[in-house]
Design goal:
about 675 residues; extended; about 60% helix; mainly alpha; two-stranded antiparallel ribbon; 21 helices
Length: about 675
């Protein structure tokens, strides 16, 4: 063994160090509070500790009618003054009415001014000046908090949209308006609030049923192990039952078609052809024709003949595939630790996802507060220009544009770092894909090395090395990090291109250019096929790396040509393995799902008292079914890797050895009997 693809290994390590540096820089500049907390017009966070807003956790909009949609509100782009408040308004009121009655109704003034700018307490100031300077909102309406922002408290009464059971309100500027004018500013909020309520109920269901979900997943794990053990004895039986079942079903179909064809004999109109009656929307018409059933019978006969011929000519290859499946079950029985290696891969991928997500959030919140001039006059030439709130009052902007204010707009910046935020996000995504593919490659190479040590052990299990899984993991890390990184890099590049194409397709979805859509569709299809092909090549290249320790390109080339020389065996083994493992996943997920259904619906008398009271019984049920499928997939992915490794070793064994004393076969006795070439040479003592 020697180190392979050293240059790529060095580049990979440098990229990881750079990725860590990028995370540190993003951590220094970023501030996730910009996502967690809403920001008022002064750039201050609502609800931030040790500030004047520590008890004011909700953002209030002076004039919500200026906001175009909820998206605008959430992105803090609404062109109106925004203040942090402790609670949302619970009544209709206008500044004009409150000011007029403040002498004999001071309680109304005290309530209203909590939604004015901090420190404002001058009810004698003229209404025109107050509204011009936006010291107070012209009106307040009953609202409720959503996403820490005050939104109108919509409800429907007899099919009519209302706010606090009213259909009209005063806008504080002398007009009476309909509450439907608020709809665009808060479009779809009720639906989202309902979804939030459902989300809380789902969370409650998880909180009281999580241990039963874990028990269901543990049962799925035990069933997966049991299925893998039974495959050693039942792989052939399951496959042949399925094949003969398909043959029997098709045979019944042929008989039924012949019966229908004969039954329609002599019935008026049944001898017409499809061409005679033309196209009919009622397809039952075609079933009244003898020609239709004759065509069905011919098609089914053709399929039946093809299947029988394939079984006749491929019988040995099918037997080899089944023998390899049994051998895979035997190999896992000797190296049981491999079944739990997917946990390592899962943890590595979880770390990659967590680091990518945190870095992406910090990069997205790396901007500095940007303030812009907000003017009530549409002809103000300074409107939407950047400004400095500390020096704004000393400029002549307020003189030229009365009522203009320097308010917080968004987070951004003009520095070199802020200009390249998008490039950093792209680099973050690319390195994330590279690391995830490397974690998967490391798992495949590790498992391949362990199972290869089983196959090439002449006396099984005596010659299997001690701790084969740990030894294989050590070899992969010590000698082949560069090769694994090289294969992961190629795959990551293709995946990044696919992500970019999906992004472009999403952006251009509304375009009417048919050629552009056709070109994008073709590119997406081509790169999807390329990704599938590269995954297949990489998987087999990692097996050859684990066996011989050569570099990635050499291993990929040798694996590809070895598979091409055994292309029929590859196809047969692939389909047989896919079928049996898919059957196993369905059996595990379905079996545990049925058990969970009877349990959570209290249909098992013994456990009826133990079932928790749920809002939606389908929440833990779907979780158990999906989780069981993923658990089974994790175990069966090890089995699939084992079969692929044993198959490549088997092909190499056939080409390198001839069964003589000098070059004995390493395959099992059952495989050797199927080949029927030469007798196994006597095993060495």
């Amino acid at each position: 063994r020697r180190c392979t693809d050293i240059i790529c290994c060095v580049i990979f390590i440098v990229v990881i160090l750079g990725y860590i540096a990028l995370g540190v820089v993003a951590w220094v500049h970023g501030d996730p509070r910009k996502v967690i907390y809403p920001t008022d017009s002064y750039g201050q966070f609502c609800g931030q500790k040790n500030t004047l807003n520590k008890n004011k956790t909700i953002l209030f909009y002076f004039n919500i009618l200026k906001c175009a949609s909820p998206v605008v509100l959430i992105n803090l782009q609404c062109p109106t003054t925004q203040l942090c408040v402790s609670k949302c308004p619970d009544r209709f009121a206008t500044y004009i009415d409150v000011q007029a009655s403040y002498r004999y109704r001071p309680d109304q003034w005290n309530y209203f001014r909590q939604f004015c700018k901090p420190g404002f307490n001058n009810p004698r100031k003229s209404v025109a000046q107050v509204l011009r300077d936006e010291d107070c909102p012209s009106m307040i309406i009953p609202s409720r908090p959503f996403l820490k922002r005050c939104f109108p408290d919509f409800s429907t009464k007899n099919g009519v949209l209302t706010v606090a059971n009213q259909t009209t309100f005063k806008d504080g500027r002398g007009k009476t308006r309909n509450v439907t004018d608020l709809r665009e500013a808060a479009n779809g909020i009720n639906n989202v609030l309902d979804a939030r309520s459902v989300g809380m109920k789902i969370f409650e269901d998880y909180a009281i049923s999580w241990y039963w979900i874990l028990i269901g997943l543990f049962i799925a794990m035990m069933l997966s192990l049991l299925f893998l053990v039974l495959l050693r004895f039942t792989a052939g039986v399951l496959f042949w039952i399925f094949i003969f079942g398909v043959i029997g079903i098709i045979g019944y179909g042929i008989w039924h078609c012949y019966w229908e064809y004969d039954h329609l004999k002599g019935i008026p109109g049944s001898d017409l052809t499809v061409y005679d009656i033309g196209f009919q929307t009622d397809f039952k018409v075609y079933l009244q024709l003898r020609q239709t059933w004759l065509a069905f019978m011919i098609i089914l006969c053709g399929v039946e003949v093809i299947i029988i011929l394939m079984l006749i000519f491929l019988r040995n290859r099918i037997r080899i595939a089944i023998a390899l499946l049994k051998e895979g079950s035997r190999a896992i029985g000797y190296i049981m630790s491999t079944l739990f290696y997917p946990i390592v891969t899962f943890l590595l991928i979880a770390i990659c996802i967590s680091y990518w997500a945190v870095t992406a959030v910090f990069l997205a919140t790396s901007g500095e507060p940007v303030y812009k001039v907000m003017a009530n006059q549409t002809l103000c030439k300074y409107a939407n220009l950047t400004c400095d709130p500390e020096t704004f009052n000393t400029t002549n902007v307020t003189k030229l544009c009365p009522g203009a204010q320097c308010t917080f707009a968004f987070y951004g910046g003009e520095s070199l770092y802020h200009k390249y935020i998008f490039i950093f996000q792209l680099a973050n995504a690319f390195v994330f894909l590279w690391l995830v593919n490397f974690a998967i490659a490391l798992g495949q190479c590790t498992l391949a090395g362990a199972f290869a040590s089983y196959y090439w052990a002449y006396r099984k299990p005596a010659d299997i090395p001690l701790w084969p899984l740990f030894s294989s993991f050590g070899r992969a890390i010590r000698y082949h990090t560069g090769s694994l990184a090289f294969g992961a890099l190629i795959l990551a590049i293709v995946q990044l291109i696919r992500v970019i194409l999906e992004y472009l397709d999403h952006k251009l979805k509304g375009t009417q250019n048919s050629f552009t859509r056709f070109l994008l569709c073709c590119l997406k299809c081509c790169f999807w096929c390329l990704e599938k092909f590269l995954k297949f090549i990489n998987r087999n290249a990692y097996i050859m790396i684990a066996i011989y320790g050569k570099n990635f390109c050499t291993s990929a080339k040798e694996a590809f040509f070895l598979l091409m020389r055994n292309v029929v065996r590859v196809a047969v083994l692939d389909k047989v393995t896919d079928f049996l493992l898919f059957l196993g996943k369905i059996l595990v997920a379905g079996g545990v799902g049925v058990l969970a259904f009877f349990f959570f619906t209290q249909r098992i008398p013994v456990f009826a008292q133990e079932v928790p009271m749920l809002n939606y019984y389908w929440v833990p049920l779907l979780t158990v079914i999906i989780g069981s499928y993923l658990v089974a997939h994790g175990f069966f992915s090890v089995y699939a890797m084992c079969v692929d490794t044993l198959f490549l070793c088997f092909c190499e064994d056939l080409e390198r050895n001839d069964g003589s004393t000098a070059k004995p076969y390493f395959m099992s006795a059952s495989l050797h009997r199927i080949l029927g070439k030469k007798k196994l040479s006597p095993k060495k003592a």
